[in-house]
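Input sequence (88 aa), recorded before submission:
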Amino acid sequence: MGILFPESILHSDLFAVLAAFVAINTVMYGALAVAKMLPKVYPGDWITSRNRRIETRSINPDPSRRVGRGGRRRRSATTPWTSSETPR
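Predicted structure, token format:
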């Protein structure tokens, strides 16, 4: 004899389906909890594409990586013009 339900309900197909649903739900929520603790993964970092920008669009770009039209380096604010370059 069962404590809350009669034994016939505990051995029914409906109770087995409910127990399977609860088991799958518990495993899924456990996996989601573990996934939230892990660091975020960016698949785009693994795949190299040709859509990368040549220039950074940052407010404060790194002057050593700045490239102008034609592949020439741009003059930074602290670098004086050389004799071969003319300011525009």
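Checked by second reader. The radius of gyration is 32 Å.
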